Amino acid sequence: MSDTPRTQQLDVGSLIWALILAAFAALAISIALGHTPDWSLIKILAPVYLILLGLLGLVLSRHRG
């Protein structure tokens, strides 16, 4: 057996999709519980959230060398 430590590669695409779907799930649960979402706030926050996720994806996918 080799004594070199194994590093795990982070699957950035899966992480980004999981965060997007978690936001949709939180919205769906909120609606199912009878809360009315503030759509004027969501239409501002949704693009900001997607931009931040894109930046997170870029940072995490950088090759460190």
Describe the structure.
The chain is mainly alpha-helical. It has one domain. Helices cover 66% and strands 0% of the residues. It is built from 2 helices and no strands. The protein has helices at 12-32, 39-60. α1 runs antiparallel to α2. The longest helix has 22 residues, at 39-60. The protein is elongated and about 55 Å long.
Topology, pairings included?
Layout: H1 12-32, H2 39-60
Question: Which short descriptors sum up this protein?
Answer:
65 residues; mainly alpha; 0% strand; single chain; 2 helices
Quick take:
The chain is mostly helical. Helix content is 66%, strand content 0%.
What's the gyration radius in Å? 17 Å
Q: What is the makeup of the main sheet? A: none
Indicate how many domains the architecture comprises. Answer: 1
In helices, the fraction of residues equals 55-70%
Strand content: under 5%
Query: What is the CA–CA distance across the termini?
Result: 26 Å
Globally, the shape reads elongated
- The overall pLDDT average reads 90
Counting DSSP H or I runs of 4 or more residues, the number of helices is 2
SSE string, helices as H and strands as E: HH
**Total beta strands:** 0
Low-confidence parts: none
Q: Helix/strand-derived class?
A: mainly alpha
